Amino acid sequence: MKITLLLLLSSLWFLSATHAAPTPPPQPVAFRVGPFRFDRPDSWRWAPPSSTFRAAQLEKKSPRGNCLTLTFSRFPSGEGGSVQANLDRWAAQFTPPPTPQPEIKKGAAGTLTLVRLEGTLRGGTPGGPAKDLPQALLLGAILESEGELVVMKLAGPAQEVATAEKDFVQLAQSAVGLTPQPNASATDSRH
């Protein structure tokens, strides 16, 4: 009996050692959305887009343990509205709507429009929270090249989103061919 039990345990150990759980697929370091190349920051992980509207998605744990989701959407020429229409749509997701004050920069690979909106993010808006979220921050970037738009968006509790602002701005700047500034933020000039 002891020998049979010993053989059974040995067999189970051998099977578990040789049939380890499958390893997750490797995380892409660089990825493309339309004409733009993005280099994923080390602190972010690639995630499958959670809707067909999204071309790419990155996720990161905030210092408070919540998941921050950075989305990328692609709009071929003539689709997705103008830059101003997108800024207005984002502002309309807040109560009361703030006035967007975009920062526009031109790089070798395209034009970048950055915006930072704060306030109460209305619940029930597409891609937004289920219920009103006071003290929210939305970081938005619109990258343009040859009429095509790539839209980046990161929104959530202001204290948590602010911890990812540097990564967000640097990711957008490098995609359009600008050299990211070490202490870059979407609103450095307004602080």
Question: Would you write up a description of this structure?
Answer:
This protein has helices spanning 2-18, 83-91, 158-162, 165-175, and strands spanning 30-33, 36-39, 45-46, 56-61, 67-75, 94-95, 103-107, 110-121, 133-145, 148-157. The chain has 191 residues and is of the alpha+beta class. The protein has one domain (29-190): 3-Layer(aba) Sandwich (Protein Transport Mog1p, Chain A). β7 and β8 (110-121) form a beta hairpin.
What structural class do you assign from the helix and strand content? alpha+beta
CATH C-level name: Alpha Beta
Report the radius of gyration as a whole number of Å. Answer: 22 Å
Task: Give the percentage of residues in beta strands.
Answer: 35-45%
Number of helical elements = 4
For the record, the CATH architecture stands as 3-Layer(aba) Sandwich
CATH topology label: Protein Transport Mog1p, Chain A
Shape: globular
Question: Could you estimate the helical fraction of the residues in percent?
Answer: 10-25%
**Uncertain segments:** 5-9, 186-191
Biggest sheet architecture = 8 strands, antiparallel
Tell me the total number of β-strands: 10
The rounded distance between the terminal residues' Cα atoms is 77 Å
- The CATH superfamily turns out to be Mog1/PsbP, alpha/beta/alpha sandwich
Can you tell me the number of structural domains?
A: 1
Q: Which series of helices and strands comes N to C?
A: HEEEEEHEEEEEHH
Average pLDDT, rounded to a whole number, is 85
